[in-house]
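Readers outside the structure-tokenisation community will struggle with the description of the input data as it stands. For illustration, here is how one protein appears when written out as sequence plus structure tokens:
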Amino acid sequence: MTLSTSAEGVPTDRRAGSVGIGRAHAKAVLLGEHAVVYGAPALAVPIPQLTVTATARVTDGPGDVSFAMTGSPSRPMVTQASDGLRRLITEFMAAMGVDDSPHLDVLIDGAIPHGRGLGSSAACARAVVHALADLHGREVTENETYDLVQTAENMAHGRSSGVDARTVGATAPLLFQKGEVQGLSIGCYGLLVIADSGVVGRTKDAVELLREGFEQHAGAKERFVHRASRLTEEARYALADGRPEELGARLTDYHDLLRAAGLSTNGIDALVEAALTAGSLGAKITGGGLGGCVLALTRMEQAGEVTQELYAAGAVRTWVVPLRGPAEHAR
């Protein structure tokens, strides 16, 4: 789409019917949930199979924004998402120097289930940023996109680590630590089987539960962060050096850490046990906790049996994600 612009490069012709489109994808955290906000490292992988597309359309009427989401998210979830996205749109207009405020209809169409720890809210926000950029004929840098997505994420989740905001636009696994992000070296090749428990996770409640535990027990935070950091670093090097059994063991160890902190559920634990019994190298909850999804590292020849056992243990759906590096993700 080509827009006419003023001498300053600001679009001057956004007629009713003008459309912008943006896209993003899901993510999963391998290790590092919760501890990353205290300075520990975290490892995350993109899930390109699960995508979201945002369409922003200019319509006749006073300056306002109307949101619609496909699927059947709950009303509170839609309200929470639209509040963050409205703030994001306001910030986008200010950052990009868009002075006027046409009426926008924003449609979000995605395959990422809400509230499962797969980065649905961040992916929606990223897709909206790029839809607005497309609509207004603007280029947005990755850092500008990140800052705008964080605007929505902080409203949705409180203090957001930034892992979701980065990974929903990544093309390969990433390492996060103390606000810095870099690509991961991949020497292990296997499959990540992700199983949806069917239960919406409660990130804010999980964060509060963890914080209360830290306050009630002297040294609990330091022990948690130290253990999480050690497991994540060991997993990082196992991933780089091609030691899948050790990587899998660290995944299971991290699940035990989160479970001990009260962040798992009986249903999640049953899925983890089912994956391990079926031959997975390791399995854990992924995301904020108290619901959501389980992630299992599996050899290709075992993926079918693992998936079957996960369904038998209560999974409502599964996805299989190859564990691979940047060049392979680009194929």
